[in-house]
Amino acid sequence: MRTHRVHIPQTPVVGESVELTGESCRYLHQVLRVKPGDSLIVFAGDGDEYTAVVEVCNKQRVNIGIDAMCKHSDTEPGLRIHLGQALARGDRMDYAIQKAVELGVGQLTPLGTQRAVVKLSTQRAERRVEHWQAVAVHASEQCGRTRIVTVNPPAALEQWVANVDTDLKVCLDPRGDCDFSDIELHGSDVALLIGPEGGFTAEELASAQQASFHRVRLGPRILRAETATAAGLTALQLRFGDLRTSVKPPSAPS
Predict the structure, then answer these.
(1) In the chain, what are the domains?
(2) Nearest CA among 113, 213, 125 for reference residue 163
(3) CB 3.0–4.6 Å: which of 13, 69, 173, 231 could bond 215 by disulfide?
């Protein structure tokens, strides 16, 4: 039987119990349908995870007892990636966030662009960020990460490209003048800019170039925005990160 991984809001202490209410309780009770005696893996997003056992489970609360700290899990990436993701409609944004978490993004900023289909009021933006943060938490539970990706409040593209501070800045552009094999990373911080369904305007590309973004093409085909997110992050991790193929040491002479 699979042992579920669950994010909890506070750092666990071995030998103590944690009481969960609200959405965490609902998720465990109604979605995962855990029962007293079931084993869990829990993490608070600080890099550690723990074994735990369900003690009480009902509609009002779930109590779990913390047994022990697990052996350190090497699932967090060495690359620190800040993803600037143009706003996309509904499930497409959720999909992009899920894949971003799975592929090692550290933080994500939704971006308003001139051709974005989605326009958010201040109140609606707050609700969407709360939803997207929950998507990121559940993706971390699923993929084994021990830290939670931060979903920042939405920003204008021009503001984000001007202020993001990383060792390498990449803008995916099907008409770009280089590919991933042409760029170098001196450090570990990367900004990746993904455009909207309608593509960047000339003014937005000029803003990115002025802010030292490399316009990188990703193959000969036009990709959907959510596909570009997964493909671009995969290319980054293959080129500089933890998806690189390890080189086997040479065989010892006989």
Answers:
(1) 4-69 (2.40.240.20), 80-240 (3.40.1280.10)
(2) 213
(3) 173
